[in-house]
Structures are given as structure tokens and as C-alpha cells.
Amino acid sequence: MEEKITLLNRESFGEFVKNNDCLVAFFKSKCPNCKVLLKVMEKCKAGRPEIAMACISSEDEEAVARMLAIGRVPTVLVYKGGEEKTRKSGVMKPAELEDLYLRA
Questions:
Q1: pLDDT in tens, 5-22
Q2: Can you tell me the distance from the alpha carbon of 61 to that of 34, in angstroms, rounded to the nearest whole number?
Q3: One short Pfam family name for this protein (predicted)?
Q4: Which of 25, 42, 70, 98 is the most buried (most CB within 10 A)?
Q5: Taking each helix axis from N to C terminus, what angle separates 32-47 and 94-103, rounded to the nearest 10 degrees?
Q6: Residue 31 vs residues 27, 28, 50, 75: alpha-carbon distances, Å
Q7: Which domains does the chain have, with CATH numbers?
């Protein structure tokens, strides 16, 4: 079972969400809340290694962020069956992140 958070780019994004039920976080490198959320994702991943998790830089991949109407970061999107099921912006606790995924 994969136990790391995958860093996506515009080439890998579509394939990743098509092939995985997953959480994808959009972030900016200098955003303090984004850094906190990435740590939260690591904690959540440690407890739930079966959940595929990835992140993508909204700075480096502006076209993807624009296409998905990402207005602020951090924003987490949940994909199941290749489709976006829900999204939430802001910092969450590990249990909230897990709940977001499980309820989608």
C-alpha cells in the first residue's frame, strides 16, 4: 500500500484522479496554512494508508487550478470514480480530512 503523498503536475493529475479514489490538495509554497494542511495530510495518511493522497502546486500548475476554479488555498478536492465529489478550503484536523473523504 502506498504510504506517501504524491506530488502531481498537469501531466499526472488527470491520470491520478481517474485511477484513484483520492484526496488532492492545492497549495502554494509560501502559504502558512498550506504547510499546516500538508502536515495534517501526512498524519492522516499515516493512520489511513489506504487513502490515496496527492498535492499540486497552484503556483506551478496555474492552468489546472484555473480549470478547477480553485479560488483559494489550501483547497482539498475528493475524487471518487474519476469525478470530483466534494471540496473544502482551509485547514482541517486529520479526523476532519478523513471524514471529508469518507462522506464523499
A1: 999 999 999 999 999 999
A2: 16
A3: Thioredoxin
A4: 25
A5: 70
A6: 7, 5, 28, 12
A7: 6-103 (3.40.30.10)
Q: Which pLDDT does position 1 carry in this prediction?
A: 42
> Is there a contact between 54 and 22 (Cβ–Cβ < 8 Å)?
yes
Q: Which amino acid is at 104?
A: A
Peptide bond into 74 cis (omega under 30): yes
Distance of alpha carbon 20 from alpha carbon 15, whole angstroms: 8
Reported as a single tens digit per residue, the pLDDT across 55-98 is 999 999 999 999 999 999 999 999 999 999 999 999 999 999 99
The candidate with the shortest Cα–Cα distance to 57, out of 93, 17, 7, is 7
Sequence-distant (6+) residues with CB within 8 A of 43 are 94
Q: CA-CA distance, 48 to 61, in Å (whole number)?
A: 27
Q: Can you tell me the distance from the alpha carbon of 27 to that of 46, in angstroms, rounded to the nearest whole number?
A: 20
Which residue shows C-alpha cell 483559494? Answer: 72
